[in-house]
Design goal:
- The complex is a heterodimer of chains A (about 375) and B (about 140).
- With about 375 residues, chain A is α+β, with helices and mostly antiparallel strands.
- A four-stranded antiparallel sheet of chain A has the order 3-4-5-6.
- Chain A is globular and about 85 Å long.
- By secondary structure, chain B is an alpha+beta fold.
- In chain B, strand 2 and strand 3 form a beta hairpin.
- In chain B, helix 2 packs across helix 3 and helix 2 runs antiparallel to helix 4.
- The longest helix of chain B has about 30 residues.
- Chain B is elongated, with a radius of gyration of 22 Å.
- The mean pLDDT of chain B is about 90.
- The chains are: A alpha+beta (about 375), B alpha+beta (about 140).
- The interface between A and B is large, with 78 and 51 residues.
- Strand 1 of chain A pairs parallel with strand 2 of chain B.
Chain lengths: ~375, ~140
């Protein structure tokens, strides 16, 4: 028999106090400032903003600090914070074609108009830990070179001019919103992209990788990756026009994929799209691979790989949901387990009776 | 309004007193912090989709001279949103407009352009200049 009990208040209080102490660590070491986190752990902050689905560097830095660097915990904090705020409206769609580019590369065209700009990247480094990281050695200011004001069209628009690639397509009406509308599968590509943009980087990376290894292969090329600042414009009914309220940094990936054509469409390149807050190329690339894989039906492709299964991908991409359900297992399940224990005992009795008289099984839980 | 939104808070703070110090500011709405859903487009140019939210702060104020001004800025700086709304109101006053243009709008846009130029030049230095290897015969 199980009797409900209460308790643990003091233990929980002291555990949180202990956690707070461990979070702060050695008091002789200066505390991290938000500027240090946002400035020197910028990509961690970017990931928290992207998957927390809230663009606010300072808040994300606070969350990283509070979560002791546990990024999924920090993402959870940011998600919880956003639920406390009213939504004033939606921005005009960000125009990535007019982005102030900080990095922009194409793996399919060497001589793209506007150039290949490497920007601040880990690519081409040797991935060796620098001994200088153990100290605080001075860092050189970046090199500068006079910049001409030139257009940087999206590579997909260049291919588009020849009709070799599927167009962006058009859409009218309000896009769906997974934070407000129910997700009855199948959902539209708009809601899929929203889910992928806030989806777990590791999960999407693994799914994208699986498509490359043959589970839903779709022959991808990086048409273009661009990282930079885009204007945020909002319609303000008070004044009757749209106003630029600031800028955000985003990463965009255009994945270009082969398509042999169908009865309706001539052979052409198809596309997967990735757009993520902050500088996060791995996430944007993974997103675009998965976006393309999820479009299998549009191109009459066989759907037999995990990355092509919309419900499987979208329902499991959110790491806050995932961690909530996995981690709840560590909360008390005393009553559930008691019921299971009783069930197993009864089954063993029935099993033993069916087997005929035999030696008693000692019960481990007793 | 965009210039006030992108101006550093200190620029607005320091400029208010000398230009508009005689005016009283009364709040009409806010400043209040909330969210704006940022949208992208499928493929970059197609149908809109919801990318994720950003924190914003908006304010509306009325000056003692009667003008009403509005502001919305990215982030959660309530003081800055209030000041941006106050400048939006004061800018409507023809007597103040020229000074606000010269001492607030122009410097704010110049600071933004300077940061933009610096970023562009730093990025430009990372441009790949391809050259063709000439195969030697010896």
């Amino acid at each position: 028999m199980y009797v409900a009990v209460k308790g643990g208040e003091a233990a929980i209080r002291n555990a949180h106090r202990l956690m707070e102490d461990r979070r702060r660590g050695d008091r002789d070491v200066p505390a991290l400032t938000l500027e240090q986190i946002a400035g020197q752990l910028a990509l961690a902050v970017d990931r928290v903003m992207a998957e927390g689905s809230l663009y606010d560097r300072e808040l994300a830095a606070m969350a990283v600090r509070q979560a002791r660097g546990d990024l999924i915990e920090a993402i959870f904090l940011l998600r919880a914070y956003r639920t406390t705020l009213p939504r004033f409206g939606a921005s005009l769609p960000l125009d990535t074609a007019t982005m102030q580019v900080e990095r922009r590369i194409s793996a399919i065209y060497k001589d793209i108009p506007g150039g290949q700009l490497l920007g601040p990247t880990f690519d081409y480094t040797h991935r060796l830990i620098e001994p200088s990281m153990a100290a605080d050695e001075p860092v050189d200011a970046p090199e500068r070179r006079a910049a001409q004001d030139e257009a940087r069209p999206r590579v997909t628009d260049i291919l588009g001019d020849e009709g070799l690639i599927e167009p962006d397509g058009e859409g009218i009406g309000e896009p769906g919103d997974i934070t407000r509308d129910s997700t009855d599968f199948p959902i539209g590509r708009d809601m899929r992209l929203q889910a992928l943009a806030r989806g777990d980087e590791g999960f999407l990376l693994a799914l994208g990788y699986s498509t490359q290894r043959g589970y839903g292969r779709n022959h991808p090329f990086v048409g273009e990756i661009r990282v930079g600042l885009v204007d945020v414009e909002v319609e303000m009914p008070e004044v009757g026009f749209s106003v630029r309220i600031g800028r955000v940094q985003v990463t965009e990936c255009q994945m270009v994929n082969q398509f042999k054509g169908s009865a309706k469409e001539p052979p052409q390149f198809t596309r997967g799209y990735g757009l993520v807050f902050g500088q996060s190329e791995r996430k944007a690339m993974a997103m675009s691979l998965v976006d393309r894989a999820l479009r299998a039906d549009e191109f009459g492709e066989e759907r037999n790989a995990p990355a092509q299964d919309e419900e499987f991908v979208i329902a499991h991409s959110d790491n806050v949901q995932a961690t909530g359900f996995v981690e709840h297992l560590k909360l008390p399940h005393y009553v559930d387990f008691q019921a299971e224990l009783d069930l197993v005992r009864r089954m063993r009795r029935a099993h033993a009776e069916a087997e005929g008289p035999a030696e008693d099984y000692p019960e481990a839980a007793e | 309004m965009s210039a006030f939104a992108v101006a550093p808070p200190a620029l607005l703070r320091d400029a208010w007193e000398p230009i508009c110090g005689a005016l009283g500011i009364a709040p009409v709405r806010g400043p209040e912090t909330g969210l704006v859903m940022l949208r992208g487009r499928v493929g970059g140019g197609g149908a809109p989709f919801n990318l994720g939210e950003a924190s914003v702060t908006r304010a509306s104020v009325r000056l003692s001279s009667g003008e009403i001004g509005h502001a919305m800025i990215l982030g959660r700086d309530a003081d800055k949103a209030g000041l941006a709304a106050a400048f939006d109101a004061a800018w409507q006053n023809a007597d103040l407009r020229a000074r606000i243009e010269d001492e607030v709008v122009a410097p704010a846009l110049a600071l933004e352009a300077e940061a933009e130029r610096r970023r562009a030049e730093e990025t430009e230095a990372t441009r790949v200049d391809f050259f063709t290897m000439v195969r030697g015969e010896d």
